[in-house]
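Quarterly update, task 2.4: 2'-deoxycytidine-5'-monophosphate-bound model.
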Amino acid sequence: MIGAMIIAVDGSAASGKGTLSKRLADHFNLAYLDTGSLFRALALQLLNAGTVIDDIDENQPIEESTRLDVGLCNAPEIRTDRVASLASKVAILPEVRTNLLTLQRNFANDPPHGNGAVLDGRDIGSVVVPETPIKFFIDAKLEVRAERRFKELLHAGQSVMFRNVLADMRERDQRDRTRSVAPLRAADGAKIIDTSTMDAEKVFAVALDHVKHIVGT
Ligand code: DC
C-alpha cells in the first residue's frame, strides 16, 4: 500500500468499534482517535458551563466547539450516559460538526505517531476520510449493545438500571441515524460486521482478513 494507512471504523454505540479500532491500531502501528471522545468532551464542557440540555436546538451556534478543551477527552466524566446523551444532541449541530471535522482530518492526515491512523466514530468513512479504501461498519442488536453498556457502567461503579440504559441507547441510536448532517450509516465500500454473537477475537480476525484483502498482502 502506498502512503500512510488510514482505517475508518464507524458503528453504533457499544457495537465493539472501539475495541476493534485499538486492536487494529496496535497491530499495524497506527495512531488511534476515538472521535466520540471529542463530542463527549464538548458535551462535558457545555455541562460544566451550565448549559441546559433541553435548550439546544438545530440552529444554535455553540461557540465552545471552536475552543474545545481537548484535554477533557481524557476525563473519566465523559464516559457517563448523561454526557453521551448530550454528545449525541450537540452532534446534530452543523457548526459543531464542521469544527470537529477539522480536528479529525488533521489527526488522520498528520497522526502524532505511527504509520497512519485508525479513527472510529459515526461518519469517518462517509465524511471524515471518505478517500480511504479501508472502511468498517460495526453493529449489533440493540439489546446486546445495551447489555454490554450496562455491564461496563456497573463495572465502572455507576449505579444504573438496565431498562434506562436500553431506553437511552434506543433514543441515541435514533438521533445518530436520523440527523440531517452526517448520519450514522455504512459508508460505500465498508465491510459490515455484526458483532451480536461474536467475541472481540473473532471480530478482529474478520477485520484483519478484510484489511489484508484490500491492501493485497
Ligand atoms: O462513540 P460514542 O458513543 O463515544 O459517541 C458519542 C456521541 O457522539 C454519539 O452518540 C454521536 C456523536 N458522534 C458523532 O456524531 N460523530 C462521530 N464521529 C463520533 C461521535
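Highlight for this quarter: The domain at 5-208 is CATH 3.40.50.300 (Rossmann fold).
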